[in-house]
TrEMBL record:
This is Thioredoxin reductase. Homodimer. Pfam families: Pyr_redox_2. It is an enzyme of class 1 (oxidoreductase). InterPro entries: FAD/NAD-bd_sf, FAD/NAD-binding_dom, Ferredoxin-NADP_redctase_2, Pyr_nucl-diS_OxRdtase_2_AS, Thioredox_Rdtase. Belongs to the class-II pyridine nucleotide-disulfide oxidoreductase family. Residues 5-298 form the FAD/NAD(P)-binding domain. GO terms for molecular function: thioredoxin-disulfide reductase (NADPH) activity. Its EC number is 1.8.1.9. GO terms for cellular component: cytoplasm. PANTHER family: THIOREDOXIN REDUCTASE 1-RELATED-RELATED (PTHR48105).
Length: 315
């Protein structure tokens, strides 16, 4: 007989792992499906200083490793598969993956979000050849080189500060005349002797031959364009993009309610418009997308899924 899970969780980031932990600990048969690497965005984060109780040397990968271990200790299964379709018309829901299909009494969607691209000429061509979206992954490649960080929020400025440990100079490029990052983070950046700033500017184009060799900026107030060329001795430089995220919710279009930008709409109990389908983490409409809110969402979703199952599948 084909197994019917109590809960299948789509996505293995902090929200999914938290949901998996709470569901498995609640004695529900639990499956976490991750199409890429377990941990989501946090595995690209060097420092997790604002997660309550995090030890001084906590990193994204180390925190995720402990989350995974906890889930498995309580009996949650973790598999690698990409879900292509979900069928929710019946009480028992069906998830069709690339590798196999799964059945569940409840689904928790935690697909997360991915870095938003600049969508300018040259960006795609030079991704991995000078253009990056992960300072933790690629900072070492730019040791003693110059680096530009595009963006002005918390992530952009925090990653820029991290990059100063490697690059000889880090320049933040922001479309406004002041940063959006928290004041405490800004203070660190302004005090860092390796950091410079280009205000009121956006990237127009990225150029090169095999590797990034120049970048064109446009001043949004004056319309003036400026092209920066790599130092002759270096031959290249780094461009790190941190301008927000895109929710990975294409799977749920036409099925679950979402806002105009694709974030899933839930109530405070993580319930979507479909009974037995919950959503948690960065994929949903919310005011703060951080690890601490993702794991809270996941815990709530798991508890609500348990209540739904108890009420819907009464013996």
């Amino acid at each position: 007989m084909e197994k019917i899970y109590d809960v299948v969780i789509i996505g293995g980031g902090p929200a999914g792992l938290s949901a998996g932990l709470y569901a498995a600990r609640g004695k529900m048969s639990t499956l976490i499906l991750e199409k890429d690497r377990t941990g989501g965005q946090i595995v690209t984060t060097n420092e997790v200083a604002n997660y309550p109780g995090a030890i001084a040397d906590a990193t994204g990968p180390s925190l995720v490793a402990r989350m995974v271990e906890q889930c498995k200790e309580f009996g949650a299964e973790i598999k690698k598969d990409a879900i292509k379709e979900i069928q929710v018309e019946e009480k028992i829901k069906v998830l069709v993956g690339e590798k196999e299909s799964y059945k569940a009494k409840a689904i928790i969607a935690t697909p997360g979000a991915t870095p938003r691209p600049l969508s300018v000429p040259g960006e795609k061509e030079f991704t991995g050849k000078g253009v990056s979206y992960c300072a933790t992954c690629d900072a070492d490649f730019f040791t003693d080189f110059e680096v530009f960080v595009i963006g002005g929020g918390d992530s952009a400025v925090e990653e820029a500060i991290h990059l100063t440990k490697f690059a000889r100079k880090v320049t933040i490029v922001h479309r406004r005349d002041e940063l959006r990052a928290a004041k405490s983070i800004q203070d660190k950046a302004f005090k860092n002797p390796k950091m410079e700033f280009i205000w009121d500017s956006v990237v127009e184009e990225i150029k090169g031959d095999g590797l990034v060799e120049s970048i064109v900026f446009k001043n949004v107030k004056t319309g003036e364009t400026t092209e920066y060329h790599a130092d002759e001795e270096d031959g290249t430089f780094g461009i790190f993009v941190f301008v927000g995220y895109l929710p990975q919710t294409d799977l749920f279009k036409g099925l679950l309610d979402m806002d105009e930008t694709g974030y899933l709409i839930t109530d405070d109990n993580m319930k979507t418009n479909i009974p037995g389908v919950f959503a948690a983490g960065d994929c949903r409409v919310k005011s703060l997308r951080q690890v601490v809110t993702a794991v809270a969402d996941g815990a709530i979703a798991a508890i609500q899924a348990e209540k739904y199952i108890d009420n819907t599948f009464e013996e």
